[in-house]
Amino acid sequence: MSAPQWMDARNILCVRLDSMGDVLMCTPAMRALRQARPGRTLTLLSSASGTALAPYLDDVDAVITYAAPWMKTGASHGAPHPPSADSDFIGQLAERHFDAAVVFTSFSQSALPAALMCYMAGIPLRLGHCRENPYRMLSHWVLDDEPGAQIRHEVQRQRDLVASVGCRSADARMQFALRAHDLMAVRRMLEERGIRRGRPWILMHPGASAASRRYPPERWADVIGALSRRTGCPIVLTGDAHEAALIEGIRAGCGVATHSLAGQLGLGQLGAAIRLATVVVSNNTGPAHIAAALGTPLATLYALTNPQHTPWQVESRLLFHDVPCRFCYKSVCPEGHHDCLGKVAPGAVVDAVCSLMGATRHYRSSSTGPSADPHTAGPALLLGRQGEAGIGDNASGQPCRDQAHFPIGNNAAQALAQLHVLGDGHGGPVRVQHIRTCAAVNFAQHDFYLGIAHRVLTVRGKRRV
């Protein structure tokens, strides 16, 4: 796409109308926009949840909060929203005299409502993904071929979008800029609870905005009890004020001493607590993305509602139980069983946290990620009789455990492409260090899969059968 006009744009509106985690995953793209031209200013247009990040986004100069009526965040609570409010808002946008607007969306969303709004506000350059020709609504657009032809991580999707108009950055990290006063406040709170500086401790965030992405409370209690007995580390639970009852119920059921900061932390202090923690355990929700942005090792209870929001550029463990209804994109489990999270064994969560605690010293001493023994550690490509492929921990000796194995289907190319989507946790494709076969593998297929792996992925180490 030829876009010389974009290099002249000084005042850019960045539109991401959903939640905090979604905005965080746009920060590498926004950095690329800002760095592409000296003196460029960025304004973030988002929901109240998204614009709450403003003090912690150094690449954003201003924010505008807008409850878009076509978004779930803007249509909830039954609040009155007359069309005249949107007309007035478009007028307010026009008064800002933006040179360009970038509409960031996931592949399950349409950029066209926001594009029309920007068009009516007289913003001359408008960029977004689109499945059909948007004609004048988008001056520059990228054909949206997800999820049919590919599925990228959400961060990479947005980086690719701005790269289409010449805005690129080698720095793919998400951004959450901590403030010294927040770090000082959280250190004081921890010391008041007997958690001295330098002592390992675990932060747990049991809440999530969508019911489909919440690990069951009784399972959280089991995890906390087992983890406390195994490690002896202090455990601190966080959450919003409205989640206090959830957290107190978990604390009451775990049978061990814990600490709660529910309702006591502002967003900056939550970020500080996440940065100071040795390991974070969280559902797939905003604090998980904050942990990724800050580089805190993370065990994510990852509901299989969608594939593109896995932890980005951080030492992490994904915990889930595979289900046929994976990638439902629903806020409430449509099947009613919630098995993708409910069947994750507490012991698996404890094992994941302990493995992260063992790797923390190596990870935080290197900006390029965790160190590992290349002969035994690292991800393994798993191959099965029916053509299923997945990724697991070669060092564990148990590559087919539900939380480590990601069966995809019986199409080899699709399986390897999905592994590419899941990524290596550092913003790149999976770099498989070992090849392992599952029980009763069809060895006639093994070389076929291995050949694909060499073409699609970077494979290091010896083939293991």
Give short descriptive properties of this protein.
alpha/beta; Rossmann fold; six-stranded parallel beta sheet; 17 strands; disordered C terminus; LPS_LOS_Heptosyltrfase; glycosyltransferase; Glyco_trans_9; transferase; Glycosyltransferase family 9 protein
Which fold name is given in CATH as the topology of the largest domain? Rossmann fold
Oligomeric state as shown: single chain
- CATH architecture classification name of the largest domain: 3-Layer(aba) Sandwich
Note the beta-strand portion. 5-15%
Shape category: globular
Q: Mean of the pLDDT scores?
A: 79
Total domains: 3
> How many beta-strand segments?
17
Which segments are poorly predicted (pLDDT under 50) over 5 or more consecutive residues? Answer: 361-380, 383-388, 391-465
CATH superfamily of the largest domain: Glycogen Phosphorylase B
Q: Give me the Rg, rounded.
A: 23 Å
Helix coverage percent of residues? 25-40%
What kind of sheet is the major sheet?
6 strands, parallel
**Estimated structural class:** alpha/beta
CATH class of the largest domain: Alpha Beta
The end-to-end span amounts to 46 Å
Please work out how many helical segments DSSP would assign. 16
The order of strands across the largest sheet is: 3-2-1-4-5-6
In short:
By secondary structure, the chain is of the alpha/beta class. Helix content is 34%, strand content 15%. The chain folds into three domains: 4-163, 3-Layer(aba) Sandwich (Rossmann fold); 180-364, 3-Layer(aba) Sandwich (Rossmann fold); 379-459, no CATH class.
Describe the structure.
By secondary structure, this protein is of the alpha/beta class. It has three domains: 4-163, Rossmann fold (3-Layer(aba) Sandwich), CATH 3.40.50.2000; 180-364, 3-Layer(aba) Sandwich (Rossmann fold); 379-459, no CATH class. The chain has 16 helices and 17 strands. It has helices at residues 20-24, 27-35, 48-51, 72-75, 83-95, 112-120, 154-163, 180-192, 217-231, 244-254, 267-276, 286-294, 339-342, 346-364, 412-422, 443-456, and strands at residues 11-15, 41-46, 62-65, 100-103, 125-130, 140-143, 202-205, 235-237, 259-260, 279-283, 298-301, 316-319, 379-383, 389-393, 431-432, 434-437, 458-459. The strands form four sheets. It has a six-stranded parallel sheet. It has a six-stranded parallel sheet with strand order 9-8-7-10-11-12, with helices on both faces. A three-stranded mixed sheet has the order 14-13-16, covered by helices on one side. Strand 8 (235-237), helix 10 and strand 9 form a beta-alpha-beta unit. The longest helix has 19 residues, at 346-364. The chain is globular. The N and C termini lie far apart (46 Å). Mean pLDDT is 79; it is low at 361-380, 383-388 and 391-465.
